[in-house]
Design a protein that fits this description.
By secondary structure, the chain is of the alpha/beta class. Helix 37 links the parallel strand 25 and strand 26. The termini are far apart. Bound molecules: thiamine diphosphate and magnesium ion (MG).
C-alpha cells in the first residue's frame, strides 16, 4: 500500500527551506531514516521517515520552502501493514491538557489528596482526638505491628499536649540518637552524632597482615618526608609538603593494598584523583615498588631536566605516571564527578563494558571551601553515581590554620552531602576509643564529642595526653572517671579514625558496596601526623618542609623505621631488600590488584578522518543564502553524524544553549543522555525537534554550568587514556563564558592532554549584537593563546571552518597529537563564497590572500582581517579602490595566535644561529614582498592582531575592540569600536598619508565624510 510522508510539526517555523534531499526514487528506506534536511535562518534539522518502504515519488526539490503538512514523498510499504505517521497519531499535548482539566473538574479526582493535605496541616495545631482520628487513617504497609505504632504515637501526642512540642522534639532526638548508637544507620536528620557511622561490631575486618602493612606505611612515610627534606637541603626555594601526606598515609595505603584495581588487559581500572600536595607519598610508594629510584626522588620538584618529579600531579610532565591534575583546589572533585558520570555515559551507550569500576577523589577539608569542590555533588546524587567515592581528609587544618575552628567540618559536610543525597560515612574515632564508647552508659562521652569544636580538637593533638585528660574528659567528672585508669600516654594513643587501618578498611568496603548513591568518607586525621613538635597539629604544619635531625630521629622512632642514628643523620632513603617481607607483600598486593597505580597509558585506536564528501558542501558558495558560522558548524556536525567512524564518537556538550546555537535538531536525532531515560512525555512531543532524553542519548546537556561542561569535556577528551576509547568531545558555549569563566579547567585540560574541540560560539565583541558588556567577548583568543597545546582559530567563512575542523580531527583523533582546538563561531548571517584555490595551507597556518584589488596601480595597502571584521575589510577595500584610487590586498587571517607561534619560533631559530641561513616566518613569507603599509583588525582587542607586529619589517597598524562591550546593533557597535568599513577606509587613508604615500587631505575628507568624531575619547575610556 502507498504511504504519504508529510512535513511534521517543526515548531514555530513556517516556509522552511529544503537544503538536502537524502533519498531518491526507488530507494528502500527504513523507519527513522533521514529523508530531507530543512534549514531555517537559525538551524538545520533532518526529517526522518515515519514509515518503511520504497520511495515511489518525491514531491519536493532542493530550495523549496515547506511548512507542516506539506507532502514530501510517497512510499509503497512492502508488508502492507497499516502504518500511521506517529506524530499525527499522538494526542497533542494541548488536547491532553483539556481532557485532564475536564476530568479534574468533576471533583472526585483530587478530593482525597486535598483532605489528607488538609489533615496534615491540622495535625500541627492539634486536638488529641484529631490526632487519634488521623492515626486511624494513616496506614503504612511496612508496619509490622500497627498496634505498637499506635501506642508510640499516642504517647508522643500525650507529651506534645502535656509538655509541649519542644519536649516532644527532645525525646524524638534522644530516640534517634539511641537508635544510631545501637547501630541502626537510618538518619532522621541531616546530622548524626559525632561518632563513626559504622558501629564497631559491624566493621568488616581487613584480610591484610596489619603488622607488615604498618611497616610498609612507616617506610612510605619516611621516604616521602626525606624526599622533601633532601630537596630543600639542596635548595630551600624548592618547597614541598610533608604534613598533608603524613595525615593521609593510611587513607592511601588501605586503598593501594586492598581496593584500587589497576588497568590491565582484563580490566579498565579504577581511577584515583590524588590530593595534589600529597604527591610525595605517592612517589615514596612508587620507590618501594621499584618504579622510581633514589636518583629520581632526589629530583623532586626539579623538572627542567628530564627525569625530575613534578611537584604535584601533572600528566603533561609525567605522562606515564600521573593521570589527573588536581592541585588547583576544587577542580579535582569536580573532574572526578564528571569522570564518574562519563564512565556511566560510555556504559549506557554501550561503548565500554560495565566492570563496576570506581572513581575515587581525595580532597582536603580546606579544599571543600572552593565552590567547585561542592559544585557537582547534586549531579552525582541525581545521576546515582555509585561509582564515585570522595574521601575528605579532615585533618581540621588548611594552610593558615583551622578549617572550622569554631565548628565541626565533619558535621558540616555530613549535612551538606546527606542533604544532597549522598551516602555519608564518618570515620572519626579509631579503635582505641571503642571500649570507652561501649562503656559510656551516661551518654556523656558522645555529648562531649558533640560539644567540642575543631579548634579544640586540633589543640588536643598538639598538646599531649594530660591536656586532653584535663580539657576533654575533665569537663565532666563521669568522663574523667572513665579514663581514670588510663595513663597520659594511653590517652594520647586514643587515635583518630583516619589513622586506623581497620576503620578505614571498613569504610572503604562499605563505600564500594553502596548502590545507587555516591559515597563520601569523612575521615578525621591529624595534620603532620607523627611529626611531633616540628609540625603535628600546629597551625604552621602545612608549610613545614624541613626537619632537623632531632625531628627526624623522633619521626623514625614514632614509626619504628629500621634506620640507625647514623643513617637518620645522613637523611637516607630506606628501601628494604627485594626479598624482604615488606617488598614482597607490597608487590603481591599490587599484583593481585592488577598492577601499579597511578599509571597513565593509552591503547585507543585512531579514528579515521572522514572523507572530503562530508565537508564538500562547505566549499561551495552559499549564493544568496546567508548563514552564520555557528549554523555552518551545526550543519557540518549533522553531516559528521553520517560518517560511521566519527558518528558514535561525537560527544556534543552544551550548557543549556542548544537553541541559541540552532542545535535543537540534535535532541531527536541523537538524544540527550539521561541515565534513567525519559519518564515523561515532553510538552513538545508532537514536534520534529522534541526534547528527547534517553539512556543511550549522545548529547550531554549540562544545564547552566560551564564548569561542569568543561569537566565533562575533559573526561571525554581524555577517554582515550582513561577508557582506551577515543572520543571526540565538542563543547559549545558562549565565547565570553569560556576561557575567562573556566580558564583554570582549560589549563587542567592542557595538562591532562585532552583532545577535542572547544567552540566559542556567538563570539566577538561587536558580532553579538544587543547582549551587552558581560556577553561580548573581545579577548578569548588571547586567553586561549596562553595555553601551549591549545590551537585556536577565528574563521570567517564556512570553507575555512571546514578546513580547520577536518585538520583538527586528523591531528587529534587520527594522529593522536595531544592538542585541543578552540574555534570561534559567530551568529552573524552572511553569504559565504566558494573556497578559493590553494588556500588550505594558509587557512591552517593562519593567513592567506583572499582578494587582490589592483585596478589603479598607484598606491597600495595590505588589509588583514579576521572573523567577521574581514568582511568589513573587504568592503573597505572596494571603497578605497573605487572612491580613493587606492589598491589593496586583503588577507583572511584565521589565527593571529598561530602566526605568532610561528614567528616566535622563527625568530628564536635565527637568533640562535647567528650568521647561518635565516629562516623566514610565515607572516614574512606572505607579506614580505608586498607593497604598502599594513592595517590589521579583528573583533578582538588590538593586542590580538598586534601579536604579529614583530615578525614583519613594515609599518603596521591595528584596529580592535578594546574597551567594555555594550548593547546595540552590530552597525553601531562597529562604529563605536572603530572597526566598521568607514573607519577602516578613513584610518587606511590616514595611514597612507602618515607613510607619505598620499596627501593628507584624502584622509581629512574621509573623516569628514563618514562623520567620524575626532574628539570622541578612546572606547576604552567610555
Ligand atoms: C585554587 C587553589 N588555591 C590555593 C591553593 C594553595 N594551597 C595549597 S594547599 C592549601 C591548603 C590546603 O588545605 P586542605 O585542603 O585542608 O588540605 P590538607 O593539606 O590540610 O590536607 C592551599 C591554600 C591551591 N593549591 N589551589
Ligand atoms: Mg586540611
Amino acid at each position: 500500500m502507498s504511504e504519504k510522508l508529510l512535513v511534521p510539526d517543526i515548531g514555530d517555523f513556517e516556509e522552511v527551506e529544503i537544503i538536502e534531499i537524502l533519498v531518491k526514487e526507488g530507494d528502500k528506506i527504513s523507519k527513522n531514516d533521514p529523508v530531507i534536511t530543512l534549514e531555517s535562518d537559525k538551524s538545520s534539522v533532518e526529517v526522518p521517515s515515519a514509515f518503511e518502504g520504497v520511495v515511489d515519488s518525491i514531491n519536493i526539490k532542493i530550495g523549496d520552502k515547506v511548512s507542516k503538512g506539506d507532502l514530501i514523498l510517497t512510499l509503497s510499504s512492502e508488508n502492507g501493514t497499516q502504518q500511521k505517521q506517529e506524530t499525527i497519531e499522538k494526542i497533542p499535548p494541548a488536547t491532553e491538557k483539556i481532557i485532564a482539566e475536564a476530568e479534574n473538574s468533576n471533583g472526585y479526582n483530587n478530593s482525597e489528596l486535598d483532605t489528607s493535605a488538609h489533615k496534615e496541616i491540622k495535625v500541627e495545631n492539634i486536638q488529641a482526638e484529631e490526632h487519634n482520628e488521623r492515626l486511624e487513617i494513616v496506614q503504612n504497609n511496612n508496619d509490622i505491628d500497627p498496634q505498637e505504632t499506635k501506642e508510640w504515637l499516642e504517647s508522643l501526642s500525650a507529651v506534645v499536649h502535656s509538655e509541649g512540642p519542644e519536649r516532644a522534639h527532645f525525646l524524638i532526638k534522644q530516640l534517634i540518637d539511641q537508635a544510631y548508637k545501637e547501630g541502626s544507620n537510618i538518619p532522621y536528620t541531616q546530622n548524626t552524632p559525632y561518632i563513626n557511622t559504622i558501629p564497631a561490631d559491624e566493621e568488616i575486618k581487613s584480610p591484610g597482615d596489619q603488622n607488615i602493612e604498618r611497616k610498609i606505611r612507616a617506610l612510605i612515610r619516611w621516604n616521602s618526608a626525606v624526599m622533601v627534606v633532601r630537596a630543600n637541603m639542596r635548595d630551600p626555594s624548592l618547597g614541598g609538603h610533608i604534613g598533608t601526606f603524613a595525615s593521609a598515609a593510611t587513607l592511601y595505603d588501605i586503598g593501594m593494598n586492598h581496593f584500587w584495581r589497576a588497568k590491565s588487559n582484563k580490566f579498565g581500572g579504577d581511577l584515583i584523583y590524588f590530593q595534589g600536595h600529597s604527591a610525595p607519598g605517592i612517589y615514596a610508594r612508587a620507590f618501594l615498588e621499584g618504579r622510581l629510584d633514589e636518583k629520581q626522588l632526589d629530583r623532586f620538584r626539579q623538572e627542567v631536566y628530564p627525569g625530575g618529579l613534578s611537584s604535584y600531579p601533572h600528566p603533561w610532565l609525567m605522562p606515564k605516571f600521573w593521570q589527573f591534575p588536581t592541585v588547583s583546589m576544587g577542580l579535582g572533585p569536580m573532574m572526578a564527578t564528571y569522570q564518574a558520570r562519563f564512565m556511566k555515559y560510555l556504559i549506557n551507550r554501550k561503548l565500554i563494558k560495565d566492570e563496576n569500576r570506581k572513581v575515587w577523589s581525595f580532597l582536603g577539608d580546606g579544599e571543600i571551601d572552593e565552590p567547585e569542590a561542592l559544585g557537582s555533588i547534586g549531579l552525582a546524587a541525581r545521576e546515582k553515581l555509585d561509582n564515585l567515592i570522595y574521601v575528605v581528609n579532615c585533618n581540621l587544618q588548611r594552610l593558615d590554620g583551622p578549617v572550622r575552628g569554631n565548628g565541626k567540618i565533619i558535621q558540616e559536610l555530613e549535612g551538606i552531602f546527606r542533604g544532597a543525597g549522598w551516602n555519608v560515612i564518618k570515620v572519626i574515632w579509631g579503635s582505641y576509643w571503642d571500649p570507652l564508647l561501649a562503656n559510656d552508659k551516661s551518654g556523656l562521652l558522645v555529648k562531649r564529642m558533640n560539644e567540642a569544636v575543631d579548634g579544640e580538637y586540633q589543640a588536643f593533638k598538639a598538646k599531649g595526653g594530660l591536656y586532653v585528660r584535663d580539657n576533654f574528659f575533665g569537663k565532666y567528672p563521669e568522663l574523667k572517671n572513665l579514663v581514670a585508669s588510663y595513663t597520659d600516654s594511653d590517652i594520647w594513643k586514643l587515635n583518630r579514625g583516619g589513622h586506623d587501618p581497620h576503620k578505614v578498611y571498613a569504610a572503604y568496603h562499605k563505600a564500594i558496596n553502596t548502590k545507587d548513591r555516591p559515597t563520601v568518607i569523612l575521615a578525621k586525621t591529624i595534620k603532620g601526623y607523627g611529626m611531633g613538635k616540628s609540625g603535628e597539629s600546629i597551625n604552621t604544619t602545612h608549610q613545614q618542609k624541613k626537619l632537623g635531625v632531632d625531628d627526624l630521629l623522633y619521626y623514625r622512632d614514632r614509626f619504628d623505621v629500621p634506620l640507625t642514628d647514623e643513617q637518620v643523620k645522613n637523611i637516607e632513603y630506606f628501601r628494604p631488600d627485594e626479598n624482604s617481607e615488606e617488598i614482597k607483600y607490597l608487590k603481591k598486593r599490587r599484583l593481585a590488584l592488577g598492577g601499579y597505580i597511578p599509571e597513565r597509558s593509552s591503547f585507543s585506536k585512531p579514528i579515521k578522518t572522514p572523507s572530503n564528501d562530508i565537508f564538500d558542501f562547505m566549499k561551495k558558495s552559499t549564493g544568496e543564502k546567508e548563514m552564520s558560522t555557528t549554523m555552518a558548524l551545526v550543519r557540518m556536525l549533522t553531516n559528521l553524524l553520517r560518517d560511521k567512524n566519527v558518528a558514535p564518537r561525537l560527544v556534543p556538550i552544551i550548557p543549556d544553549e542548544a537553541r541559541t546555537f540552532g542545535m535543537e535538531g540534535f535532541f531527536q536525532k541523537i538524544g540527550i543522555y539521561a541515565h534513567e531515560g525519559q519518564k515523561y512525555e515532553p510538552e513538545d512531543s508532537a514536534q520534529l525537534s522534541s526534547y528527547k532524553e534517553e539512556k543511550s542519548g549522545q548529547v550531554l546537556e549540562e544545564g547552566i554550568n560551564e564548569a561542569g561542561s568543561m569537566a565533562s569535556w575533559i573526561a571525554a577528551g581524555t577517554s582515550y587514556s582513561n577508557h582506551d576509547i577515543e572520543m571526540i568531545p565538542i563543547y559549545l558555549f558562549y565565547s565570553m563564558f569560556g576561557f575567562q569563566r573556566t580558564g583554570d579547567f582549560a589549563w587542567a585540560a592542557g595538562d591532562s592532554q585532552t583532545r577535542g574541540f572547544l567552540i566559542g560560539a556567538t563570539a566577538g565583541r561587536t558580532t553579538l549584537a544587543g547582549e551587552g558588556l558581560q556577553h561580548q567577548d573581545g579577548h578569548s583568543h588571547l586567553l586561549a593563546s596562553t595555553i601551549p597545546n591549545c590551537v585556536s582559530y577565528d574563521p570567517t567563512f564556512h570553507y575555512e571552518l571546514a578546513t580547520i575542523f577536518k585538520e583538527g580531527l586528523r591531528r587529534m583523533h587520527e594522529k593522536h597529537e595531544n592538542i585541543f582546538y578552540y574555534i570561534t563561531t559567530m551568529n552573524e548571517n552572511y553569504s559565504h563564497p566558494e573556497m578559493p584555490k590553494d588556500c588550505e595551507e594558509g587557512i591552517l597556518k593562519g593567513m592567506y590572500k583572499i582578494k587582490d584589488f589592483s585596478k589603479n596601480k598607484k598606491n597600495k595597502i595590505q588589509l588583514l582581517g579576521s572573523g567577521t571584521i574581514l568582511r568589513e575589510m573587504m568592503e573597505a577595500a572596494e571603497i578605497l579602490q573605487n572612491e580613493y584610487q587606492v589598491d589593496s590586498e586583503v588577507w583572511s587571517v584565521t589565527s593571529f595566535n598561530e602566526l605568532r607561534r610561528d614567528g616566535l619560533e622563527t625568530e628564536r631559530y635565527n637568533l640562535l644561529n647567528p650568521g647561518g641561513e635565516k629562516k623566514i616566518s610565515y607572516v614574512e613569507k606572505c607579506l614580505g614582498k608586498t607593497e604598502g603599509p599594513i592595517l590589521a583588525a579583528s573583533d578582538y582587542m588590538r593586542m590580538n592582531s598586534d601579536q604579529i607586529r614583530p615578525y614583519i619589517n613594515k609599518s603596521f597598524y591595528s584596529l580592535g575592540t578594546d574597551g567594555f562591550g555594550r548593547s546595540d546593533t552590530r552597525k553601531n557597535l562597529r562604529k563605536f569600536f572603530e572597526v566598521d568599513k568607514e573607519h577602516i577606509v578613513a584610518y587606511g587613508l590616514s595611514i597612507l598619508s602618515n607613510e607619505q604615500l598620499i596627501a593628507s587631505k584624502h584622509a581629512v575628507d574621509a573623516i569628514k565624510k563618514y562623520k567620524i568624531d575626532k574628539d570622541k575619547p578612546m572606547p576604552t575610556k567610555l
